[in-house]
Design a protein that fits this description.
213 residues; alpha/beta; seven-stranded parallel beta sheet
Length: 213
Amino acid sequence: MNLLIVDDHHMVRKGLIYFLEAIPAFKVVAEATNGQEAIELYDQHKPDVVLMDVDMPVLDGIQATTEIKARWPEARILIVTSFADQDYVIPALQAGASGYQLKDVEPEELVETINAVYKGENKLHPHVMKHVLSHVTYDSTKQRLNSLTEREVDVLKEISTGKSNKDIAEALFISEKTVKTHISNILSKLELTDRTQAALFAIQAGIAKPIIL
């Protein structure tokens, strides 16, 4: 698995690289000190997972995540930061981050999170989850959920598990083309931009269980 490490603190960045490269399954292909470098290096290397800090000079992690996801929707970005407050968490997830971990996480949990994000799952630190659950009011969420058809709700539930279009098609006994149509309708009706936001919405709506380390 090819990784891109983005952090403006030299010791943190080198520490992450030293730890992750000791794991046979991981290879750090590049390191960046700010969000602008992250975009340029993503373009060069197309890593499998980006470990992105939030508070950085030139371009912060949230802006960089937004830009990367806009150019490469398939990008998998894991936020790794010291900030657990809502002002960072919600914008990062809205930008398209697939996971959010704090820098005090246990090493084995970080490895599990990276693997989960690589597989398309959404992994959040427990301290972060409370912000996600409180971000959208119950009534608003329920109203938006009711705009979906029964089959669209089924597809939304499958999206929240990190399944690919092919896997969803097999699980629901429909074609991949039909799955794509349903996903397009779901994103449009819920006013969301990608599958990660759809998965988070499913958690907020109570139709999917959060995956928490």
